[in-house]
UniProtKB/TrEMBL annotation:
Its EC number is 2.4.1.-. The chain holds residues 102 to 571 of 571 of the full protein. The lineage of its organism: Eukaryota, Viridiplantae, Streptophyta, Embryophyta, Tracheophyta. Keywords: Glycosyltransferase, Transferase. It comes from Solanum commersonii. GO terms for molecular function: quercetin 3-O-glucosyltransferase activity; quercetin 7-O-glucosyltransferase activity. It is an enzyme of class 2 (transferase). Belongs to the UDP-glycosyltransferase family. This is Glycosyltransferase.
Amino acid sequence: SDGLPPSYLMSTSHKAHCLILPFQGQSHINPMLQFSKRLQSKRVKITIALTKSFLKNMKELPTSVSIEAISDGYDDGGRDQAGSFVAYVTRFKEIGSDTLSQLIQKLANSGCPVNCIVYDPFLPWAVEVAKNFGLISAAFFTQNCAVDNIYYHAHKGVIKLPPTQDDEEILIPGFLSTIEASDVPTFVIVPEAERILEMLVNQFSNLDKVDWVLINSFYELEKQVIDYMSKIYPIKTIGPTIPSMYLDKRLHDDKEYGLSVFKPMTNECLNWLNHQPINSVVYVSFGSITNLEAEQMLELAWGLKNSNNNFLWVVRSTEESKLPKNVLEELKLTSGNNKGLVVSWCSQLQVLEHESTGCFLTHCGWNSTLEAISLGVPMVTMPQWADQPTNAKLVKDIWEIGVRAKQDEKGIVRREIIEECIKLVMEEEKGKLIRENAKKWKEMARNAVDEGGSSDKNIEEFVSKLVTIS
Ligand code: UDX
């Protein structure tokens, strides 16, 4: 509140210095930022390298870490300027390697030279930069271990896809059970996503050269697949990566979530939630980039209304035009027995933490899923693309903390299904186990990062190795 970083970050006697290189997108940067704060609390100096184009769009930067600019070769417009995702990644490799090296040289004269690069494996070239300078390197996977395991087996050519039928069962070594094609990350099965899949499997291309593989998950959540992957790579789970104030509360004042181009309507949401009964609200959000078809938006609107529960729905401004005005009006505050609030963005952690929130209707992006697990909120899942179907499978069948609202043959989840799923999770006897399991996992998530927990021990081990090798 006084503009200064929290006191635990003010230490000047650092044991080591980590340079953090995220992929430039809020869902990748934010988990790495949370991990950085944990490292800083253990007296590791942190510098986060962000591209000039990304920095330009940020109205506010985190005050808890030091930030330096590098270039992706598109300083004016970033990914939009590049035209295609693949063009962006290719040029970033070329220009990024040079500018990251210059930054390491600059920091060498800062009194605390860099010892280690923690990089997002979307940018595998960072390992070469680390090797050139004789630094330790650690890959930081922002997805969970089950998803990483699937990309690993795609990399090895073990998974033979696309499958011939939608419901064909696929056996993935290390995974908890066989899964259907509709549970596999879409990039693995959609032929048009071939170039993106190439980048995803490339994450493993030089992973045998790194000192650590850090995963944004926690051991108890994914024991079997973590044990399996640990035989191949030096894996350390370090999550959940959400601010300490929502979990173990060991880092004082640590509420800051991170970076976003969206501005949260925090007060409006909290005021409204404060006036709703306990566990009465369905919170609905599809994350920062996923777009729904107009037909799906309409089905969702009526599914929410017909469920007869209160709801708080995040409709990003770019999505708003898909909802007819009269429908929006009808959904809002005064309609029927239930009450709805539609906002363009909120502070999701505060909403999930709020006692009025009873369920989360989510696209199952990994950050959202992990946040719901950490705050004990049961889920109705409506996965759209990328890793979301796999996360939804884990939520429903492995952790048993939610249900999946199934699409029809046109790829749309109909209003009746949405209504049915919400009622099951919110109020029906059939959903009791789901609600109880959600509370159980909340406890386990907190324990993982609390003193002596599985993730805390891994972070301690990481820091002490860093100090020894340095
Ligand atoms: C993308 C991919 O879509 C997802 O599949 C992948 O797992 C991560 O990268 P995104 O769609 O943005 O991410 O979803 P998610 O990972 O869930 O991240 C969304 C973030 O935005 C969450 O941290 C959430 O707390 C935040 N959020 C969302 C808000 O703070 N306010 C909102 O109103 C909505």
